[in-house]
Amino acid sequence: MNAPATSAARPVPVPQVLSGLEPGPFHDRLAALNHQQAWMNWMGYASPSVLDTVEFEYFAIRNQSTLFDISPMCKYAIAGPDAEAVVNRLVTRDIRKLKPGRVAYCIWCDEDGQVVDDGTVFRYGPNEFRLCCQEPQLSWLEDIAWGYEVTIRDVSREIAGLALQGPTSCALLRDLGLDGIESLKPFGIGSFDIAGVALSVSRTGFTGDLGYELWMAPEGALAVWDALMAAGRLRGLRVIGYEALDMARIEAGFLLPKIDFLSAQTVLRADRAVTPYELGLDWLVALDKPHFNGRRALLELSRKPPRRKLVAIEIERDKPAHNALVYHRKSREVGMVTSALWSPTCKRNIAYAWLDAPYGQTANDHLWVEIYLQKEIRWQRRMARCHPVEKPFFTHPRRTATPPAEY
Amino acid sequence: MKYDAIIVGAGHNGLTAACFMARAGLKTLIVEKEDHVGGAAVSLSLTPGWTYSNCSYVCSLLRPEIIRALELPKHGLQVIPYEGGAVFNSKGDYFAYLSDHDALRRELIRHSPRDADGYERYARAVMRQCRFIKPLLLRTAPDPVALKPRDISELLFILKRFHNLGAREMAETVRFWTMSIAEYLDQFFETPMIKAYIAGSGIIGTGLGPYSPGTAYVLLHHYMGEVDGAIGAWGFARGGMGSITQAMARSFEASGGEIRMGSGLDRFVVRDGKVRGVVLENGDEFEAETVISGMDVRRTFIDHTDEKELPADFVRGVKRYRFRGSSGKLNIALDGMPSFTGAPKDASFLRGDLHFLDDMEEIERAYDDWKDGRWSASPYVDFLIPTQIDPTMAPPGKHYATIFVQYAPYELADGQWDDANREAFAETVISKIERHSPDFRKLIVHKEIRSPKDIEDQVGLTEGNIFQGELTFDQLLFNRPVPGYAQYRSPIKGLYMCGSSTHPGGGVMGAPGANAAREVLRDLGHRIDMGLSA
């Protein structure tokens, strides 16, 4: 956060950057509500993991409305006459099909077809894009853009973001005078203002429910927050932490880098990198478009069954299979669980698991997970039957209904 | 028309049983007297903009195994837990039962540090009893005299669990099943308001007072439930309790089941000691060799079965089975959120169950009124405003209050349950609430008043007893509803019971329906996994 020294001649010592977690644009409001004093580190920002109770925060996502600070996401502005070509070279989807005012979920790969990261591409205009993702990507983007007429800027700190998610979220925004919000389709972008602050609102989110993401300059962040909270009184708005969101994202079928897979750029062991096919994200790979990063390798990979696969599984009984190993016929180890949850909405015991081929692809019977349960300090091992199922676990018509219902 | 199985009554137990029948591949029909499904788990709109949970109003006991096996979430059921609750006393103080354990402890200490410790001991004692009883819910109660291998093994299962409790805990269990809730709580607490708050669960729906033996069990019955593994937690069904039965109906229809509404049962058709089908009030006749009644045991056998077809001792057992309606219900549409003089504005505990009580004696006096054939002058109320959490039941900023009222007699000593008495009953309740919430009365835009008589007439629960019969020890397990007939079968071949009159009893639990289905399928030779493993 330090301005570079403007004159080398002046011997003013530059203050050291702060250590510890950094307050984000909504920190004052979050701190006042964080009754559990529970913070986690998200890209160096203090992000609430839970404010009151995970349970009630979770249910607000599926029942009313919730607010979650997403400012710590990495954001890159990509603009210029060649912007479309650069983004299309980056991601595996055919971004030429993405119209201005629309958002697309994307992944991007290295030359070997291994996934670097996932994120959302916002197209604000013919030559104007923004990429939102979890991991810093600036140098990767600059490498790809080399030789193109395009500017790439890290705008992570210039844009504050809020995820407003839940069945009453549209009604809440309408109460705030966002005319036409109800006609915004899923993955659409609109321009609005709240409390005099200009906003970009996208109908996107990480919950699999009706919801919006609100993007604004950090200077206006608190005014927008306060207006949302005031309007939220009638709509059951609740501020939530990451733990509740994580439950919703597992139900919704979204993967999380560093939990469900690792970026090819961060792995030490070569076999830890993953392909889109292994992630079950074939539908994001447009092999029919011209050259893009990893295309040649992906062409090759698309022709053979993946050596392993991340699959959604459902497990018998009710104990979540955290960190569990997966066995075939209770004996042969064939995989492991990455994310696990007792889904309070689906009332199902769900998880994502990596399964070595052919399990999870052609061999789906006789799979068991090994769950460790601690009951009053005594550990028990439980073998529970599981079977692969389709993603997402949770889906609801209100996510895509346009105009959305009142709740 | 001929079916494999006919279920009488589309309440939650009838629907549960029907779902399992249809899933087993049987051609199944439900007949229902109302033009909607639900029985006592309904959501009806009586004034534009509002939806009421007209009868039952909170959800906890519905077995998670059943929710999962019948895929109720896929069919639209969402259960939202609610936060805590409170009791307000006449001196302007309150005791808040907070869902955050640390906050609850601080609140208990505010009243009495001893009670804060007592609460931990109490919670452990109740949890131990719950652990003992919970596995019995989805099992058929063994018949102790039948001596069939299955009964013996089930008896052994219970005895083994009982024995595993240890000597001290075995004694505790017997005490718990027979004691009064007042005496039970005296062991742990000294603050009158705290005792009164907890005691409510011991008397709800029952014709007993807090000092009557047997009420400790009624409390346990209300604690056996859970929301997502949080034992004892209660929640709202999003959209009202009707969303439970609507989800069940969709699940049933998705399995190929058929529901006929709008005409009630006239009689069961019985020939040569076997059931042959049903005749409806509108004259429609349907054949089936398996008929399952979701109605209570009295309506099933006294009102709709030819007594000649039944053995005398069975009829005697049915006639002496006690119902005793003891509660009424008010559903109120509110123009805004009422304020409570004792509570800080926006207190989170207002989102839970609220009561207005000084002490246990006040409940006992309320019970005294009931014994004399009057509704309580100062009733125990279980008051909730679900619309603070559920956005679907009232317009934004407006609210719905569900008010369960204990005690109200089925028969009044003076007069009938006519409009004037119903209004006077509601007035008693509203004026009590008004003492703690001065703006409550003026916020009322519509109200539904239900006496035990109305509950009987409209819902079909004899004497308005919400459990289809008292939950006292003499009417539990192998005695429910009639000794020798506690395994969902009746003296008539092919005619079964699946209502709350059977084990394990009332509450929107679904367990009687699931257990009955298991017995029926066993008799029909279906050896299928119902998907009910915990």
UniProtKB/TrEMBL annotation, chain A:
Gene3D superfamilies: Probable tRNA modification gtpase trme, domain 1 (3.30.1360.120). Residues 34-289 form the GCVT N-terminal domain. It comes from the Bacteria. Substrate binds at residue 213. Residues 308-394 form the Aminomethyltransferase C-terminal domain. SUPFAM superfamilies: Aminomethyltransferase beta-barrel domain (SSF101790), Folate-binding domain (SSF103025). Signal peptide: none annotated. InterPro entries: GcvT/YgfZ/DmdA, GcvT/YgfZ_C, GcvT_C, GCVT_N, TrmE/GcvT-like. This is Glycine cleavage system protein T. It comes from Hoeflea olei.
Automatic annotation (TrEMBL), chain B:
It comes from the Bacteria. Interacts with COX5B; this interaction may contribute to localize PYROXD2 to the inner face of the inner mitochondrial membrane. PANTHER family: PHYTOENE DEHYDROGENASE, PYRIDINE NUCLEOTIDE-DISULFIDE OXIDOREDUCTASE DOMAIN-CONTAINING PROTEIN 2. This is Pyridine nucleotide-disulfide oxidoreductase domain-containing protein 2. Probable oxidoreductase that may play a role as regulator of mitochondrial function. Residues 14-520 form the Amine oxidase domain. PROSITE patterns: PROKAR_LIPOPROTEIN (PS51257).
